[in-house]
Write a structure and sequence with these properties.
The chain has 88 residues and is mostly helical. It is built from 5 helices and no strands.
Length: 88
Amino acid sequence: MTNQWQKKAKQAQKKVDATMAEQIIKLSSIDASSINDLLVEHSMNKEDFNQLIKLIKDQTKSNNDKIKALSNMQNGLALLVGLVGKLI
């Protein structure tokens, strides 16, 4: 049973990754390859990137709490700066 749940979780994560990439592309001029390049440049995998996005979207945390969490996330802040730089 556990193996089946793990497969379903991986499939769901792939779908979420694709959906997030599509949303970013729609909201900006950044394409999927640019996002992947940023992830490689800042040594971040997609799972960590998803955690970063979840942290930013979390409405229950104050900005100070988010800043503290970002400072603990390896390369999180650097990746965000790179992403914002591409948006501007």
